[in-house]
Design brief:
Layout: E1 2-7, H1 8-17, E2 19-20, H2 23-27, E3 31-32, H3 39-46, E4 53-58, E5 67-70, E6 77-80, E7 84-85, E8 89-94
Antiparallel strand pairs: 1-4, 2-7, 3-6, 4-8, 5-6
Length: 111
């Protein structure tokens, strides 16, 4: 599984359309994703304190667009080179920060 932090409003619109797309797809050519051990750091770095987010849990085997693991350091992140088909999203987790503004692993993913 891979993960993507999404704005809840954009995600809700995407459900009706059958696919999910964000500006990074046009600007950079891909949608940023993370592995389970990466998304908390990404969330705290890019979205600290934001209350309007959800965490998409994505089954790589069901994606209609290709994934490439890339990065400028030894750590590689999954990049989705195309729209995210809604059928590949297996769960949507609430993604709210603690009172200090930092995120933690959703309880459902600790089991």
């Amino acid at each position: 599984m891979i993960f993507h932090i999404a704005e809840k409003e954009i995600w809700m619109k995407s459900i009706k359309e059958g696919w999910y797309q964000v500006p990074s797809l046009e600007v950079e050519g891909f949608i940023h994703c993370s592995n389970i051990d990466q998304f908390i750091r990404v969330g705290n770095f890019l979205f600290k304190g934001r209350q309007d987010l959800v965490l998409l849990e994505i089954d790589e085997g069901n994606l209609s667009a290709p994934i490439k693991y890339e990065g400028e350091t030894e750590e590689k992140f999954p990049h989705l080179y195309g729209k995210l088909n809604i059928s590949a999203v297996v769960r949507v987790h609430p993604f709210h920060p603690r009172p200090n503004g930092e995120f933690e692993l959703p309880v459902e993913l600790t089991r």
